[in-house]
Structures are given as structure tokens and as C-alpha cells.
């Protein structure tokens, strides 16, 4: 055991550095590119993205690291379970849980700021980030692996009796980050791996977030069943300024029908941008789309996801540093008003 | 010199068949008599049909009650005619190249599916002159139509289901069949997922209003439950048609090989049609000289395929009553027949109907020096990245 923890410390996972994974923002979504996508949602094996949330069959050869964490983390797992709340299929849990389904999707997730911020707020919820740029997806996959590895290391230390290992108070941290945004930016400060817990335990241990390379404009129905998602995030999307490129915009009448299809009635679509024209475009299209209804600002104040949407992404922080404006527009997926005798929209 | 071939066949439920050849089309009745045509000198009694716009006929459709007919050209000209006197009800210039058209159940609208991925709705009533011109954006004769729904892909076909609650079915180059409510098509009912390549044709049937049948570049015909999108059955054409390649009767030439895929044997479905009177689905496959019959049975299911040999590979097929009309694809050393007509024989299969076939083959058509070869559907349907060596395209190029 002691040898193992020594070895674990030597192999402390390193967070990847963004500067090695930069890629220009613009991609032609209409060109043919080789993507991996399942024939239909039931064919997708999500267990490779969220190994901790899918049971390993007894007698099946799992990978050594995963089995080790299942054994070692049992005590910590139970404590973590308590922190996460009831009903969570925890790490190493033998509970006969039904296959978990992804419920949040971040469309154009970039470097993963939103996912990393949301993960500990909703530890029982599986979230996926979708990004079309190869280098950026590679970065995010490494980032998530590293965060999970660091959490595993912290759990081991806590198990080994290290009382300095604490759980993060997620809400307090978020409040601090928002306050920090108002402080002047120090350009000489080392690149911070903001909103990712490297020193403290986070509920969910980042096992509930994953990223994929996918062209969302073509393949969403391959991954998600009708009404599967409860939240869709579209943050700081490519504005595609030129008129002839407007069809490539991620919010369009065409795509709204697909978002409405994969989002359950009562689910929420979050959009934010610093480009006023794009905000106007989004609002115009969403207001005109019969299956979405604007959520008033007052209602958004109680939604814990909103501060993450506004502040947690690299783009969001950049805009704040440059004293830009951010335009938030959130919509609820409602039942089709055209269908006679439509059921009232369920609560979010 | 060779005859200009028929590229498109479309049948009405009221006993008329349209045969299109380049920029012209002819309308014949059940006996093969030409009752109307856009070409001159076809038959003394034939009504002359006025043509609008330029370009070859790309798609055609009859309304469900047979009262209207629409034709769309490669140059985006859409014309809607009354079938009693062949007067023009309405003309329309589509925004983008249109690949398929279909009337909605009442005939009040014509749905057009374009290569940009959008379905538009054109009202079929004659436009009120002042109102339409006032609405036109750039002062031209075209009026803006409402986009009904969109895919982010090239649309290959559009159809409307039968039954009390109609759905519009659209299929695209990215293997998808989409089922949307109608007229509230922003509300996606289901996706039919399963095809592995571009879906070329979707057919609905009055005798089986809950199901739809599609054909695709992946060499399969699939049966779907419309309301759920569930795949009910897959028919692999290779199993029944591979012997045509072995026997050398399947035409596999240079243009087929340029379809960017490894194998030379391809089974690209050109068209699936419901044969209402026969309770069957009829399928024609590019380059293979057959008609595939799939009888429908309650279940729902498609029974074992019956394959009927024809003299030459097909270009299109339509079902007029209990007659299956196949237009021949241009084939260099081919027969001089334009079409072949099959009718149910006493043995339960289909046999050549010389009467109707003979009448239709007597259609006066233009003579050309060289018959243009139609490119394989795999040329536009296949994914572009498949022929690039080391396909590590991360989409970083181009805006």
C-alpha cells in the first residue's frame, strides 16, 4: 500500500497546457470530415467516457487502474457518496444502477471551462462537451484525465490518513471566482488552471464529464435520443459574420428543431455571446421558434448553472478582462402549442 | 444517332403517367396514348403544355387527387399545372437547386427539397397578382416561400405519409431519415437511423400508412415505423443481386469506379415506389438490369424479394395502377426502347406488357449523336474524405 501511494505521487498527472493545443476557431461544418459516430444512440458505448458510472461486469478484465481505484477508494467512495447525495452510482459502487444517460451537452465546449465548473455542482449528472477541433478535443481529454487522476491521488492521501485533504465548497469557490474577475488581470501570472480542483476533492471527481470530437450540426441525433437532455449550452459561438455563412451558425431554424428534439420539455437551452449582433440573431430565431420560450432574468437568478455559463469559460474570462459585455439568453423547451390538447410543460 | 432517353417517370393515382426527357415531358394515359406534351408534333390530339424556365426536368409529382402536376428543372424553375387542361396554375423560382418535390395531402402546397438541406412550401393556388408582386423582395417575379424544415445536408427525397396524422419524411446524404410533423415540421417526430450511406429514396403507401420504405447507397432497402423511427427490417440487395455482377450483366464502368470507394460492386438504390394495387414495393438499382419486387405483409414486413430481369439497367420506375413502368438508363450499345412495362402475370410474378410498352416506346423523341451518360449516384453521394490518403482532415481548412 505504502509503495503504491509513493508510486502514485511520482506519477502525479500533469494538467496539459493550452498553448500546445491551440487551433484556429473557424471550421467549415459543411465539409466532409471523418468523424466517429454511432449508428444510433443505443449503439454508443458511453462507458469509455464515464468509466466510473458504468458497472464493470464481474469476472470481466477491466483495466488495472480502474480496479485499483475501486478497491482503494471504497472508504473514500462511501464518504464521497455521502457528499454527492443519495441515488448516485458512486465509484466502485456495486449498486445495480441502470445505465446512466448523458443529460447536459456543451455544444462547442472549447477548452472545457464550463464542464469543469459544472461537474462538482451536479455530481450525479453526466455531461458531455462536443467540439469539432481536433487539437482542442485532445487538450480537453487530457485535462479531464489529469483532473480525475489528481482526484484519485487526493482520495488515496485522505485514505492514508492525510487530514489536510479537504472537500471544496463549490458555491464559495464560484463566488470567489466571480469576485476575482473584477480584480485587475496580471499578465505575468502563470497560466492558471482555473476552475479545476487540483488541491481539493470535488464532488463527482470529474468522472461525470467527458469530451468528444463531433460535428454537432450533423450528428446530434446519432448520439442523443429524443428528449434525452435536460440542458444544452451554447457559449460564445462562432459568429460567422458574413451573410453567406449564416447557415453555419449554430443557432438557426434548422438546428433549433434538432435541439428541441434532443432536449426534453422543461429542459433549458443556455446561450451567451459577447457579440451583440449574434445575440440579436439568437434571440430573433429562438423567439420565433414555437418550441422554445424565453426564461426571464428573475428566474435565472436561482439557477446554479448560470454563473458558470457567464464566468467559467476561457472566452468568458477574456471578455471580462477586456471589459466587454456578455449577452445571456436562456430558453425553456416547451410542448408544441400546435398540437391540440398539448400537455402543460413540466417543471424544469 | 440514338434516342434521347427518358430520365424520369412519375405516375398519378388517376391513370396518367409523366415521362420526362431532358427539358421536355409527355403525359400518357393507361393505354399509352399521349394526351399532352411540352414537345411539338407528338400527337395530333395532344394538348400542348407550356414550358417555363430552362433546364432539364429534375423532379416531378402529381397531387394525391391527381388534379395537379408539378415539374422542377435543374435551373430551379418550378411549374404547377392543372391536369385537366394543362394550364399553368403557378410558376416559381426556387432559391436553390431542388432535388425532389411532393404535394402535401390536400394539394394546397407543393414541398420542395433542395441541395442546401431545406424543404420549402409553395402554395399551389394561383397567386393574386398584386399581392405576390408586392411581396417579392427584389422586385422580380419570385415570391419568398416559407422554409418548412431543414437538414444540414443535401436532401435526396421528400415524401408525405398517409393516414389521419400526416408526417413529412425527408432523407439526406448523411444517412438520415427524418420524420417531422406536418405542417408543424419544426417538431421532429423521429429519426430513422440505420442506413450507412446516402438515402436516395423514401416511399410511403396508402395500404400501409404507418410504415415507410427507404433505399440508399449502402445497398439496402429498409422498412421503418414512421411514428417512432424504429427500423423494422433491412433487405440486403447484395444477397439477391450479386449474381448480376458475376454474370457480367451489371454495368460497372469507369464512372462507377470513380465513385471514390474501394469495391467495384455497388448496389445504389435509385428509387423505391409503393405499388398500391399490388400491395408491393418496387425498387430499381443503378446499373443492374432488374426490377426488385418486395411484397408487403401485415406484421408489418417485407417478404422475400422477387427479381424480374429487364433488358437494360434502369433510370427510374413508377407504378401506374398495376403496371410497373421502367425507364431505361442510357447504355451505349443499348436497345432502342425507352421504357419497359411490366404487369402482373398469372404466375404471380411480373411479365412484360407489350401493349402499353409498345405504345410508350412509340413516343417521338429527339435523336442525338451521343447519348449523355448519367454519372453514378455515388459520385455525389459518397463522402469526400474517403478518397483522400491518410484522412486526417481535422477540418482546419477554409472558412
From TrEMBL, chain A:
Catalytic activity: guanosine(46) in tRNA + S-adenosyl-L-methionine = N(7)-methylguanosine(46) in tRNA + S-adenosyl-L-homocysteine
Subcellular location: Nucleus
InterPro entries membership: SAM-dependent_MTases_sf, Trm8_euk, tRNA_(Gua-N-7)_MeTrfase_Trmb
A molecular function GO annotation: tRNA (guanine(46)-N7)-methyltransferase activity
Active site: 238
Residues bound to S-adenosyl-L-methionine: 108, 131-132, 215-216, 235, 313-315
Span list, region Disordered: 1-21, 61-94
One Pfam family matching this protein: Methyltransf_4
Sequence ranges of Polar residues compositional bias: 1-14
Gene3D superfamilies (alphabetical): Vaccinia Virus protein VP39
Keywords: Methyltransferase, Nucleus, RNA-binding, S-adenosyl-L-methionine, Transferase, tRNA processing, tRNA-binding
EC number(s) recorded for this UniProt protein: 2.1.1.33
Pathway assigned in UniProt: tRNA modification; N(7)-methylguanine-tRNA biosynthesis
Enzyme class at the top of the EC tree: transferase
Compositionally biased spans, kind Basic and acidic residues: 63-82
GO CC entries: nucleus; tRNA methyltransferase complex
Domain of life: Eukaryota
General function of this protein: Catalyzes the formation of N(7)-methylguanine at position 46 (m7G46) in tRNA.
HAMAP family: tRNA_methyltr_TrmB_euk
Record text on subunit structure and interactions: Forms a complex with TRM82.
Family indicated by similarity: Belongs to the class I-like SAM-binding methyltransferase superfamily. TrmB family.
Name under which the protein is recorded: tRNA (guanine-N(7)-)-methyltransferase
Lineage: Eukaryota, Fungi, Fungi incertae sedis, Zoopagomycota, Kickxellomycotina
Gene name, Swiss-Prot/TrEMBL: TRM8_1
TrEMBL record, chain B:
Keyword Nucleus attributed: yes
Keyword Cytoplasm on entry: no
Principal location: nucleus
Pathway: tRNA modification; N(7)-methylguanine-tRNA biosynthesis
Location within or outside the cell: Nucleus
WD repeat segments: 192-234
Pfam families in the cross-refs: WD40 (PF00400)
Keyword field: Nucleus, Repeat, tRNA processing, WD repeat
GO terms (BP aspect): tRNA (guanine-N7)-methylation
GO CC entries: cytosol; nucleus; tRNA methyltransferase complex
Gene3D superfamilies tied to this protein: YVTN repeat-like/Quinoprotein amine dehydrogenase
Job of this protein: Required for the formation of N(7)-methylguanine at position 46 (m7G46) in tRNA. In the complex, it is required to stabilize and induce conformational changes of the catalytic subunit.
Xref: PANTHER family: TRNA (GUANINE-N(7)-)-METHYLTRANSFERASE NON-CATALYTIC SUBUNIT WDR4 (PTHR16288:SF0), WD40 REPEAT PROTEIN 4 (PTHR16288)
Family according to the record: Belongs to the WD repeat TRM82 family.
Name under which the protein is recorded: tRNA (guanine-N(7)-)-methyltransferase non-catalytic subunit TRM82
Provenance organism: Coemansia biformis
Amino acid at each position: 500500500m505504502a509503495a503504491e501511494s509513493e508510486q502514485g505521487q511520482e506519477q502525479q498527472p500533469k494538467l496539459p497546457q493550452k498553448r500546445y493545443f491551440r487551433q484556429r476557431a473557424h471550421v467549415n461544418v459543411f465539409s466532409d470530415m471523418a468523424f466517429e459516430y454511432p449508428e444510433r444512440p443505443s449503439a454508443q458505448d458511453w462507458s469509455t467516457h464515464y468509466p466510473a458510472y458504468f458497472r464493470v461486469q464481474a469476472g470481466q478484465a477491466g483495466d488495472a487502474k480502474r480496479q485499483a481505484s475501486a478497491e482503494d477508494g471504497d472508504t473514500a467512495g462511501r464518504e464521497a457518496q455521502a457528499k454527492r447525495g443519495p441515488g448516485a452510482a458512486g465509484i466502485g459502487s456495486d449498486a445495480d444502477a441502470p445505465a446512466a444517460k448523458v443529460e447536459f451537452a456543451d455544444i462547442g465546449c472549447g477548452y472545457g471551462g464550463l464542464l469543469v465548473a459544472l461537474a462538482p455542482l451536479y455530481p450525479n449528472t453526466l455531461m458531455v462537451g462536443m467540439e469539432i477541433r481536433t487539437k482542442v478535443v485532445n487538450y480537453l481529454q487530457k485535462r479531464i484525465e489529469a483532473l480525475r487522476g489528481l482526484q484519485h491521488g487526493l482520495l488515496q492521501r485522505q485514505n492514508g490518513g492525510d487530514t489536510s485533504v479537504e472537500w471544496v465548497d463549490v458555491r464559495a469557490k464560484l463566488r470567489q471566482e466571480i469576485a476575482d474577475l473584477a480584480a485587475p488581470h496580471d499578465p505575468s501570472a502563470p497560466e492558471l488552471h482555473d476552475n479545476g480542483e487540483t488541491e481539493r476533492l470535488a464532488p463527482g471527481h470529474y468522472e461525470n464529464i467527458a469530451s468528444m470530437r463531433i460535428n454537432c450540426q450533423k450528428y446530434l441525433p446519432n448520439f442523443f435520443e429524443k428528449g434525452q437532455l435536460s440542458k444544452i449550452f451554447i457559449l460564445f459561438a462562432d459568429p460567422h459574420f458574413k451573410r453567406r455563412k449564416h447557415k453555419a451558425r449554430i443557432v438557426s431554424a434548422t438546428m433549433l428543431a434538432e435541439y428541441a428534439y434532443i432536449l426534453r420539455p422543461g429542459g433549458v437551452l443556455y446561450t451567451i455571446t459577447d457579440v451583440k449582433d449574434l445575440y440579436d440573431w439568437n434571440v430573433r430565431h429562438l423567439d420565433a421558434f414555437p418550441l422554445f420560450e424565453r426564461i426571464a432574468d428573475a428566474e435565472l437568478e436561482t439557477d446554479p448553472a448560470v454563473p458558470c455559463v457567464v464566468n467559467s469559460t476561457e472566452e468568458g474570462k477574456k471578455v471580462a478582462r477586456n471589459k466587454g459585455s456578455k449577452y445571456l439568453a436562456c430558453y425553456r423547451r416547451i410542448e408544441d402549442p400546435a398540437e391540440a390538447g398539448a400537455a402543460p410543460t413540466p417543471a424544469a | 444517332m440514338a434516342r434521347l432517353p427518358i430520365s424520369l417517370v412519375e405516375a398519378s393515382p388517376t391513370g396518367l403517367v409523366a415521362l420526362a426527357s431532358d427539358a421536355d415531358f409527355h403525359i400518357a394515359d393507361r393505354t399509352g396514348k399521349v394526351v399532352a406534351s411540352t414537345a411539338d408534333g407528338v400527337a395530333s390530339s395532344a394538348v400542348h403544355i407550356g414550358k417555363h424556365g430552362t433546364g432539364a426536368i429534375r423532379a416531378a409529382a402529381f397531387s394525391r387527387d391527381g388534379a395537379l402536376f408539378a415539374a422542377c428543372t435543374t435551373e430551379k424553375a418550378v411549374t404547377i399545372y392543372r391536369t385537366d387542361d394543362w394550364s399553368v396554375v403557378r410558376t416559381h423560382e426556387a432559391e436553390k437547386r431542388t432535388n425532389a418535390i411532393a404535394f402535401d395531402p390536400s394539394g394546397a402546397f407543393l414541398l420542395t427539397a433542395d441541395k442546401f438541406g431545406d424543404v420549402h412550401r409553395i402554395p399551389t393556388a394561383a397567386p393574386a397578382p398584386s399581392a405576390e408582386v408586392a411581396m417579392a423582395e427584389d422586385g422580380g417575379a419570385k415570391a419568398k416561400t416559407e422554409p418548412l424544415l431543414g437538414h444540414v445536408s443535401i436532401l435526396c427525397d421528400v415524401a408525405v405519409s398517409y393516414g389521419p396524422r400526416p408526417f413529412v419524411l425527408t432523407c439526406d446524404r448523411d444517412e438520415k431519415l427524418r420524420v417531422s410533423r406536418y405542417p408543424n415540421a419544426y417538431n421532429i417526430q423521429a429519426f430513422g437511423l440505420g442506413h450507412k450511406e446516402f438515402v436516395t429514396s423514401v416511399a410511403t403507401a396508402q395500404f400501409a400508412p404507418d410504415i415507410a420504405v427507404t433505399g440508399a447507397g449502402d445497398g439496402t432497402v429498409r422498412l421503418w415505423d414512421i411514428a417512432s423511427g424504429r427500423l423494422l427490417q433491412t433487405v440486403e440487395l447484395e444477397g439477391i443481386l450479386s449474381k448480376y455482377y458475376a454474370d457480367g450483366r451489371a454495368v460497372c464502368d469507369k464512372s462507377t469506379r470513380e465513385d471514390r470507394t474501394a469495391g467495384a460492386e455497388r448496389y445504389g438504390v435509385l428509387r423505391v415506389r409503393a405499388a398500391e394495387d399490388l400491395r408491393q414495393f418496387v425498387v430499381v438499382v443503378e446499373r443492374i438490369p432488374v426490377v426488385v419486387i418486395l411484397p408487403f405483409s401485415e406484421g408489418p414486413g417485407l417478404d422475400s424479394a422477387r427479381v424480374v430481369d429487364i433488358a437494360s439497367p434502369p433510370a427510374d420506375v413508377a407504378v401506374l395502377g398495376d403496371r410497373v413502368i421502367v425507364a431505361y438508363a442510357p447504355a451505349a450499345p443499348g436497345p432502342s426502347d425507352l421504357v419497359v412495362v411490366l404487369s402482373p402475370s398469372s404466375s404471380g410474378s411480373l411479365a412484360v406488357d407489350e401493349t402499353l410498352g409498345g405504345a410508350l416506346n412509340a413516343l417521338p423523341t429527339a435523336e442525338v449523336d451521343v447519348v449523355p451518360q448519367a454519372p453514378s449516384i455515388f459520385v455525389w453521394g459518397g463522402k469526400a474524405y474517403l478518397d483522400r490518403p491518410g484522412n486526417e482532415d481535422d477540418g482546419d481548412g477554409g472558412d
